[in-house]
Amino acid sequence: MSTIIDDKVVAGAxxxxxxxxxxxxxxxxxxxxxxxxxxxxxxxxxxKEAIKKNSDVEKEMRETISKFDECKGYEIxxxxxxxYYLKGKALNVVDRYxxxxxxxxxxxxxxxxxxxxxxxxLGECYWKNDDIQQAKNCFLGALSHGKNKVxxxxxxxxxxxxxxxxxxxxAQNIQxxxxxxxxxxxxDTTDGTxxxxxxxxxxxxxxxxxxxxxxxRLCMSAYTQAEKDIVAKSNPDLFYNKAIALKYQEEYxxxxxxxxxxxxxxxTWETPSNKRDELLHxxxxxxxxxxxxxxxxxxxxxxxxxxxxxxxxxxxKGGSFTSGENSIKLDLVPLKSLVLGMNREKxxxxxxxxxxxxxxxxxxxxxxxxxxxxxR
Length: 376
What we know:
Elements lengths: L1 H20 L1 H17 L1 H4 L8 H18 L9 H12 L7 H13 L4 H13 L3 H12 L5 H13 L5 H21 L4 H17 L4 H14 L3 H4 L2 H13 L3 H14 L5 H21 L6 H9 L13 E4 L2 E4 L1 E2 L13 E2 L2 E7 L8 E6 L6
Parallel strand pairs: 3-4
Antiparallel strand pairs: 1-2, 5-6
C-alpha cells in the first residue's frame, strides 16, 4: 500500500513540475481543448443531446478555470498579459456576458496592446453586453496590429447592428459590412464561420439596399460554403439565417427544413420555432385562398374574367415588345402551360383577386386567376 501511495505522490509531483516548467503552454492547450469541445460538440454527441450542450460547455469551462487556479501566481511571472487573455477567453466560451472576462481581457490589452487575440475576445465580451461602440473599437484596435479574419468578420456584424442617424449611413454600414466579410473570407477560404457571416452580410444587403435575386443567390452560395465546415455546420444561427433567405427565394420546403435544423441544434432557442410556425400559418392561408379563389363570390369572379382584355397587356400588347434595337415576339399562353424556371417570350393575362402579406413584409404573394384569351 505504501508503494502505491508513494507512486501517486511522485506522479503528482511530476505533474506539478510540468506545469511549473511552462504553465502558459499548458493553459493554452487547455483553453484550446475547451473550444474544440464546444465547436465540435456534435462530432462526439448525438443531435438529440443538443439540449445538454450549453450545460456541458459550462461544466468544461469551470474545469478549465480550475486549472488557472492551480497555476495561481504565474500571472505575475513575466506572462501576465497572456495569462489574463487565456483565462478571459476561457470564460468567454459561453454565450452569456461574464464581467470577470471583461476585466481580465481589459488587463491583457493594457499590459500588451499588440495582443490581437485579446482585443478580439474583449470586443466579443463587450458585444455580449450590448456595448456595440466599445466592441467596434476593440475590433478596429485589433486590426491596427495586423489584418486578421476574426476582426474583419466581427466588424461586419457590428456595423450591421450599429445605430445610425440616417438611412444613408445605414446603407454605407451594410455595404462596408459586406466588404469586411469578403475580406475575411479571402484570408481563409476554408473557414465556414467567415462564409456564414458573408452570407448574413448579403442577406442584410438584400433587405436594406435592394431586393435583388442576385444578392440572394450570393447569400445562398456563401451559406453552402459555410456548411462544408463542421464548426459552422454545428451553429444553429447558420441554418436559421439560411431559412430566412430560402423563404424569400420562396423555397418553402427547404426553408422549413432549415428552421427545423436550427431548432434541433439549439432546442432552447425559441425564434426558429416561432418563425417556422409563422411560415406554416402563412402557407396555409395562401393555400386556402387558392382553393377558394380568393374568397371572391362566383358572380364577381365571372365579371372579373369577362373584363379581361388585351389592352391590359400594356407594353406587351400586340404580342411583341422592343428591347433596345431588338423586337421580341411574345406568345400569349395560359398559366398552366408555364414550366418551372424561365419561360422566355411568354406572356400571360390575368386579374389580381387578392393579396397576402406576411409579417416580414416581403415577398408579396398574389393569388391570381389567369386566363389566356383563347380561354374566354
